[in-house]
Design a protein that fits this description.
The complex is a heterodimer of chains A (about 475) and B (about 325). Chain A is mainly α. Chain A is about 70% helix and about 5% strand. Chain A has a 4-stranded mixed β-sheet, sandwiched between helices. Chain A has a two-stranded antiparallel ribbon with strand order 3-4. In chain A, helix 10 packs parallel to helix 14. The radius of gyration of chain A is 30 Å and the shape is elongated. Chain B folds into 2 domains: about 220 residues, Rossmann fold (3-Layer(aba) Sandwich); about 60 residues, Alpha-Beta Plaits. In chain B, the strands form 3 sheets. In chain B, strands 5-6-7-3-8-9 form a 6-stranded mixed β-sheet, with helices on both faces. In chain B, strands 11-12-10-13 form a 4-stranded antiparallel β-sheet, with helices on one face. A 3-stranded antiparallel β-sheet of chain B has the order 2-1-4, covered by helices on one side. Chain B is elongated, with a radius of gyration of 24 Å. Chain B starts with 6 loop residues before the first strand and ends with a helix. The chains are: A mainly alpha (about 475), B alpha/beta (about 325).
Chain lengths: ~475, ~325
């Protein structure tokens, strides 16, 4: 045990003293934070664009404005009650807001009526201006930026002009910018809405009847069937029911991310030892299994250090901002965290994490022992990285359906089991299946460790290289020697 | 079971595919001795040493360290300098020496104290906390040697310890080996530089083409080559007849001089006395000093010739069979 500790300690200190570790430690949360904030920043930094409608039909401009307001209306609803809106059970505030909008109130007035006037709504990205010209030919200088339109914010370029003829076959959308498609899609949606109304009117159905039909449609309430032992929880579906799925996706992603990022340390560390020709000195000082255990432990400790520091950082940040966080959002966060802490999810997740780490870590150690250079390692890494992308796709599948049959089948492939077992746990698979998957994972990990030790010995002691892997596979082909 | 014999190898053979790197090697390194393990490149020295340490497993035969198959406990009594030098480039000499000493069982404090002591002794104290990557190749090599002996091993195995060192550092290493020997360590080192073996060793083992071609003391090695003297006499005197009569029957002309071989138990003084007694008109006399290099070249050449003969015989056998 002492030699395992000494190897682990040396490797751990070697890793944490490297620049790469500090970059991972500091940049990962920073980049993740930036990644999460990017959409809202992008939305906030979106310049206000000005459009005009040359509308011979008379009602298209207002229909388009209503479409453009839809995003802001939804943002306002979520801001008023995030949990209720996500669960499809809007609070009284949201219902008041919806009623005001239905009466034709502006978003700002509807918010004030619902008691959410303090909500800071983003400005609309597209603002209507009166047409500076009425024909396609005459409006070109404004669209090309040669002339500017007058707006409350001063003189601005015209982003788009929509020509809506009275009758005719097509609406023309003119703009110099062909990459920003938001306004174009809103134009199409507005036309669709107007056409639906027109067609119903032509059929003798008034728009009021359509609205009434919408209003009279009954709500569909989602209910959860529970065993009698959980009868007191009621049948209503709450966030607590969904939290384990969110937590499982989070944990599977965390495992994937950690394996993907820290096992590289094992690969690089072993390549360094091979190229530094240090194996003989080590192997006459420590048993090979102890050496491998020490190395795996060191990188696990690096992973735990990263996770620990990030967790502490997240707690500090959360505490610092919890007072300014909406109560509903706080409740949602604590519900997910408490779902993570449930033993039914936590125990298999921790086992999956440890076994998954050992399995992939041992593979990377073995690969490193065969390589003299990073370039050689990359030739062997590519198929592994492709393999590691599969669980990522499975996480996407699990987000839409955690009980998908493909998840059930693929969870029995040992290299994917660690990730997919975590994803399946919230769906409460039968005990025999969970036990079977855990046993399979343990057996597969032991087999991989045994094989990795043999490959490591071949690389470290006998100097076997990448070429020998090719020869070994060639020998498996019948008729080849 | 422990034994006082640091290393005993019996009929050890190691093959890599169709190539036999070491064949039927038996050797014993007695406690307290300095044994030179000699042989040309590719003779099987490093493979033998790696088998002795359990890094490689022999295909046949046994290797025993202190009476037991090599294991982590017996290896703790061994210090090993591998042929392929290597250290962690980002660590400091002090940290590396201390690390290997701790792996061999020393406590943290003791290992650091020992590292400082050794670095001071080898004139590397000022570089003790520098990164290995900042040191010269010779300095790094000295650090690795220190790492091998930091835990005060009973048995030091040094594979080509002098290669890569300049003459000053080679002398320093010789001194260090003598110091370790005085401390009580048994030492086995491989080399193909004969002068080091001549100066340091009690006995030598010579390898050629994977086989042991000699195992004995330095005197026995010189004896294997045969000793002789060169005597010059005035023209017309038959030295061969005179020396044969005095019990020196193997004589031959080499240029202007007679090469008189010394039979077992007779030395150069005896030969000179015999020539004078025979009334030889001596013009010059020179004992031929046997050098280990000559013994080495002779034995290796014999082994290679033998090997070649065996290969040819095997080939001709195949031809006849065909």
């Amino acid at each position: 045990m002492r030699s395992i500790y000494l190897v682990a300690r040396r490797d751990y200190l070697g890793y944490v003293q490297a620049w790469g570790f500090w970059l991972s430690l500091l940049l990962t949360p920073l980049l993740m934070g930036l990644g999460m904030m990017a959409p809202s920043w992008a939305a906030a930094s979106q310049p206000t664009r000005y459009y005009t409608v040359i509308d011979q039909s008379g009602n298209f401009a207002s229909a388009l404005r209503a479409e453009l307001d839809q995003d802001r209306i939804q943002t306002a609803r979520i801001t008023l009650d995030p949990v209720g809106v996500m669960n499809g059970e809007p609070s009284d505030k949201v219902q008041t807001f919806d009623a005001a909008i239905d009466r034709g109130a502006s978003i700002e007035d509807a918010l004030e009526e619902a008691g959410g006037s303090t909500v800071d709504l983003p400005q609309s990205d597209f603002v209507y201006v009166d047409p500076p010209a009425t024909t396609q030919e005459d409006i070109q200088p404004w669209l090309l930026g040669e002339r500017l339109v007058e707006t409350p914010a001063g003189s601005q370029p015209l982003f788009a002009a929509i020509f809506v003829p009275e009758g005719g076959n097509e609406i023309e959308y003119w703009s110099e910018n062909v990459t920003a498609q938001n306004l174009l899609s809103k134009v199409r949606a507005a036309e669709r809405t107007l056409t639906e109304k027109r067609v119903f009117e032509e059929a003798g159905v008034s728009p009021q009847i359509l609205d009434e039909a919408d209003a009279r449609a009954r709500d569909v309430t989602e209910r959860k069937a529970r065993p009698p032992s959980q009868a007191e929880a009621g049948s209503q579906v709450t966030l607590a029911d969904r939290a384990p799925f969110f937590a499982a996706v989070l944990m599977a992603f965390l495992l994937w991310f950690l394996i993907f990022s820290v096992v590289n340390y094992l690969l690089m560390g072993t390549i360094e030892e091979r190229s530094n020709k240090i194996f003989d000195s080590l192997l006459t000082s420590v048993k090979l299994p102890h050496m491998l255990a020490g190395k795996l432990l060191a990188v696990l400790a690096v992973a735990l250090t990263l996770m620990g520091v990030w967790a502490i950082g997240a707690t500090v940040v959360t505490n610092a901002f919890s007072s300014s966080m909406p109560a509903d959002a706080r409740e949602m966060m604590f519900t997910v965290i408490s779902a993570v802490a449930r033993p039914g999810l936590l125990v298999p997740a921790v086992l999956s994490f440890v076994l998954g780490y050992l399995m992939y870590g041992a593979v990377f150690l073995a690969l490193g022992s065969l390589c003299d250079t990073i370039q050689e390692a990359q030739t062997l890494m590519t198929p592994l990285i492709v393999l590691l992308m599969v669980p990522m796709f499975m996480i996407v599948v699990a987000i839409s359906d955690a009980e998908s049959p493909i998840l059930s089948v693929m969870s029995w492939i040992p290299i994917f089991t660690p990730f997919l077992l975590i994803l399946r746990i919230p769906a409460q698979p039968p005990l025999w299946e969970v036990s079977g998957l855990l046993l399979l994972m343990i057996a597969a990990t032991l087999l991989v460790l045994w094989l990795a030790a043999r490959v490591y010995r071949a690389g470290a002691v006998h100097g076997a290289g990448v070429g020998d892997v090719g020869k070994w596979f060639a020998r498996l082909v019948p008729g080849k020697k | 079971m422990t034994s006082s014999v640091p290393l005993a190898m019996e009929d050890v053979t190691k093959r890599f595919g169709f190539f036999t790197a070491v064949r039927d090697l038996s050797l014993t390194v007695p406690q307290g001795s300095i044994v030179g393990f000699l042989g040309p490149n590719g003779a099987g020295k490093s493979t033998s040493l790696r088998m002795a340490l359990g890094v490689l497993s022999p295909d046949e035969g046994t290797a025993r360290l202190f009476g037991a198959p090599p294991n982590i406990h017996s290896l703790r009594r061994v210090g090993f300098l591998p042929e392929e030098r290597g250290l962690y480039k980002k660590m400091s000499p002090r940290a590396i020496i201390s690390y290997f000493a701790r792996l061999k069982g020393m406590s943290a404090g003791e290992s650091r104290k020992r590292a400082d002591e050794l670095l001071e002794m080898m004139g590397l104290a000022e570089f003790g906390r520098s990164r290995i990557s900042k040191l010269s190749k010779g300095m790094s090599q000295k650090v690795q040697i220190l790492a091998a002996l930091a835990h005060k091993p009973d048995f030091l195995i040094l594979d080509e310890p002098f290669s890569g060192l300049d003459p000053v550092n080679q002398q320093g290493l010789e001194d260090l080996i003598i110091e370790e020997h005085k401390r009580g360590a048994t030492i086995l080192f491989s080399t193909h530089v004969m002068e080091h073996a001549e100066r340091l060793c009690d006995s030598i083992v010579m390898m050629a083409r994977g086989r042991k071609v000699f195992d004995g003391t330095l005197d026995e090695a010189f004896g294997a080559l045969g000793r002789a003297v060169l005597i010059g006499v005035s023209e017309g005197f038959d030295l061969d007849a005179a020396m044969t009569a005095k019990g020196f029957p193997e004589n031959e002309m080499q240029g202007d001089l007679w090469r008189v071989s010394l039979p077992p138990g007779r030395d150069a003084q005896d030969a000179l006395r015999a020539a004078i007694d025979a009334g030889a008109p001596i013009t010059s006399f020179r004992p031929l000093e046997a050098r280990l290099r000559d013994v080495f070249v002779s034995l290796v050449s014999d082994a290679e010739a033998d090997d070649l003969r065996q290969t040819l015989a095997a080939d001709s056998g195949k031809v006849e069979a065909a």
